[in-house]
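Notebook, student rotation project (T.W.).
Task set for the rotation: take a protein with a known small-molecule partner, predict the structure of the complex, and write up what can be learned from the model alone. Partner molecule chosen: zinc ion. Sequence and SMILES entered below by T.W., checked by me.
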Amino acid sequence: MIRAVFIFIVIVLLAFGAVWLADYPGNVRLTWGGYIVETSIVVVAALALVFAILVAFAYRFWVWLKRGPGRIGEVFSARRREKGLEALSSGMVAIAAGDAVEARRQAVEAEKHLAGEPMTLLLAAQAAELNEDDRAARIYYDRMIERGDTEFLGLRGLINRARKDGDIERARALAARADELRPGTDWVLKELYELALKARDWNKADQTLSRMARGKAGKGEAVKRARAVISYERALVCLDAGKDTDALSLVMIAHDLAPYFVPAAVLAVKLTAELESPRKLQKLIADCWKQAPHRALAEVIRLSNSGEQSPDWFRRAEETVAPHNRDHVETHLMLAQAALASSDWGPARNHLMKAGGDQPSASIYYMLAELEEKANADAIAAREWILKSAAAPQDPLWICDSCGRQEESWSAHCPSCDSFDSFTWRLADRGPQVAGAIEAEVVKEIEVVADE
Ligand SMILES: [Zn+2]
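Predicted structure of the complex:
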């Protein structure tokens, strides 16, 4: 509206000017060097107007030129961005496909077009990982942890690197930082837990496990088992420090969480025998034998009554332990050993046969040989049992489920592969038979038996 009024006023003024010029015609005379130009005032006014318009256009053009490069730059940077994004997506595809060379090529391309973008750093780090270029990967992760938007991701990369290098303390420090940035993130908690286990920091492992397993997850069997093992290890630490009472309460927690967990049952009986009343001990023995019958438990029950003679132990085992798990192989084995020690040959043979079942283990055959030898001085029968033992399965052992290592006693971490809680009590898978070696051992045993 204002613009229309303005244009109207300009037109009116121009019209007045033209009328006024027509009313007062005049001449302009310009003398310059040898030239004389003579013209009317109207022409000069028209020329002045044209000149003004030309200047206005020139000014507009200048402004356009001045802003021009920025506009051109924008077009170029949009193109660069597009190329960079293409390189990023191609690079991610290459990583997913495991194409290390292509991944690196695209990472370089992306870096060229999108230097400093968080995704570019991530792609470069991943490509370096894929190319097993540890140094480059570490450099990119280090750059990532310097920026707020990529610190968390960078930490994850660095934690993996530190674990690969076996630098557990550094990995733990990095994981603690990641936990500060985003508390309670699943993978961070998992790292904190596993690293605490590796560092044998049982208290921290226990705390982290509690944070991980809130609610329903905390009631799962695997979590209970892990907590039991950790409590057991904490009990061992207390025991080392001479805090037997604390050790007992921790091992009782372990036993309550996982009643079938043999090492906790063994230690619980041992400490209860030392610290608690006989009535409590008897109750615990009954419970443990029901849930975790095992030769190590039988041994600690036997030792819980110091100074006991063999026949007394046999009677005690039969009357107070065996009834809680009458038909278990370990019950028969315990009674057979107790009977052998107290020279009760009849029950010894009976329990050995039952302990052996369909497929007696080598140690059952050895005990049968011992029986023949001691009870009947029958070297021929003894020799037959020993011959049979060669083909018999070995006795069960604690075997690492990750690497197959065999141990006489349980431990929380495998000494070979450092897996946590990987030992199970079971028969070894019989490897290829070393027939010659077993034969030689048998012959030696027979000679010893025959000489006696
Ligand atoms: Zn192992």
